[in-house]
Amino acid sequence: MKELSYNGACNTIARQTAITQYFPYIKPGYLTKEGVTVLYIRYNYNRTKRTLIPTGYSIKPIHWDAKRKWIKRSCPLYEEIDACLIRIMSKLGMILTYAKDNNIDPTVDFIHSELEKDKKYILRFCSIDLFEALEQYTVDKSSAVSKDQIKDYRTLRKHLMEFKRFSSQPIAFSSLNLTFYNEFMDYLFHKARKPNGSVGLLTNSAGKIIRLLKTFVNYQMAEKRIPPVDLRCFKVVEEETDAIYLTEKELALIFSLDLSKEAQLEEVRDLFIVGCYTGLRYSDLSTLGPEHFDLENENIVLKQRKVHKAVVIPMIDYVPVILKKYNYQLPKYSRYIFNEKVKEIGKRAGLKQKIEIVRKRGTERERKIYEKWELIYSHTCRRSFCTNMYLAGFPAEELMHISGHKSMSAFMRYIKIDNIEAARRLKALRATLSLKK
Description:
Helix content: 40-55%
Radius of gyration: 28 Å
Oligomer: single chain
Number of helices: 16
């Protein structure tokens, strides 16, 4: 059985069970004549009994990250020392788990004795099936997260099941290593089949799968169901998206379309406009009901399904008129139908600006030219709201309270100021400065 590696910074199964603790360690203020300090693994049996396990390496203090209790990447021989630390930490984790499973007291002498042995440890944890654990995790989360997130975990499971056909190693917690990651990423980029029949995920889609996998595995470790797994090599790849937003002028064109003879298109158009002036995710927009409307203060009040965060959104611009039109019972459509129809609506509004989209799949770049209406979908609502309100001068910090974004970095990813808009704003600024001279 392959040894499991340790995930980077220091806490262990033993610590999780409130018995012991171990971590990389250097003696404070201790330097050799060469100006280096010995690198150890410190093992605490209890508050008074501890030992230092030599790693065979010495480093300069400037190459030590005291907060992370790990060497810095600037350290010479970083890869070699990093691998050594992981190897020792991993074996310590296996030894302590073995001791716990067999009711053995993990004394300092026992640890030193076991470290000297070339021994395979058969652990109770290793009988846990990854797929069964993932299925149970999905069931457990179903009452606490949105349907879209549950769908994401079903997609993760599907990809892992398909990956079994291509993998050179079993799909198990014990095989989550760099080899697994590289092979899985190759599968996602070049072999994974999408619902529309095409093959290969784009960079952000592959990154999302890895993020879901890490969340799931970290949960299993936190619940002490599996030994520590080193996930530091599982990089969540991503690239800046080319998703569009619609300007307020374009939204006015869409709102002014006469669709009175086509009920479905008219309803989808109205729902789309509400989305573009509230910033709601489609999962929230499509479930709005009378209970969410505070008519006295002209606000929409709800708890977002994805992040379970309460938001208060003012009814602005076209929103009050549309809500009254439907007596505060907005039409309901599946996301698929909504996405199909908003494209048709955008085409009728004449949104035919040519847009180049460049996306990555692994190291390959794909370049395609679209007309703007072809790129409209449900999330365009949220991006349009955030971008237009930001361009109108509303403070980003306050706008985040309305959109429900938790961090400025997450919010700014929604701000889509294209090159023409940026150029226009720079010209306006320079013109203003010229007038002052």
